[in-house]
Write a structure and sequence with these properties.
alpha+beta, Nuclear Transport Factor 2, Chain: A, 5 helices, 32% strand, Nuclear transport factor 2 family protein, SnoaL-like
Length: 164
């Protein structure tokens, strides 16, 4: 009887965890779809109001309101960006109000990697932090670092000067 109770508990937990993963997956797909359809309200409604979006450019570390202001003109033109999911991994700890994920995306920039954190709110899961990176194959790193060397050097010098 004890083994059956434990087995039933594990089964119920697995079903609950699978349901949470599905809910998170739906939120992320809705978010990407809202961008592709230039649905500004839905896109930003999927994020917490204290969310952070880190873009592919090293200067893109956007607080929620700043990111909204940056993105609004793109959405107003009727075309923001279009990311479709190639693969996604979702992680969370039982009883936690946060989940984290990574995803591989098909984008207008080629393959990108997204990762982030979601928080459960009274309205359901919302994106709290997102990082977008352009995925560069290892065999192309030398070529890419040479291409961006001047930009990187200039930005690093500027950041270091601000620290002093």
């Amino acid at each position: 009887m004890k083994k059956q109770t434990i087995l039933l508990f594990v089964l119920i937990c697995n079903i609950c965890w699978a349901q949470q993963s599905k809910e998170i997956d739906i939120v992320l797909e809705k978010w990407h779809k809202a961008a592709a359809q230039a649905d500004f309200d839905s896109y930003f409604g999927t994020m917490t109001t204290d969310a952070i979006f880190i873009g592919t450019d090293p200067t893109e570390n956007w607080a929620y309101d700043d990111f909204k202001a940056f993105a609004k003109p793109y959405f107003d033109k009727g075309k923001a960006w279009s990311f479709s999911t190639l693969e996604r991994n979702i992680f969370y700890k039982k009883g936690n109000t946060f989940a984290w994920f990574d995803e591989l995306l098909d984008t207008q920039m080629g393959i990108c990697r997204g990762s982030g954190v979601l928080e459960i709110t009274s309205e359901g899961w919302k994106i709290k932090h997102y990082v977008l990176s352009i995925a560069i194959p290892n065999e192309n790193v030398k070529e890419i670092t040479a291409l961006k060397k001047d930009f990187d050097t200039s930005l690093m010098n500027k950041i270091k000067a601000q620290k002093n």
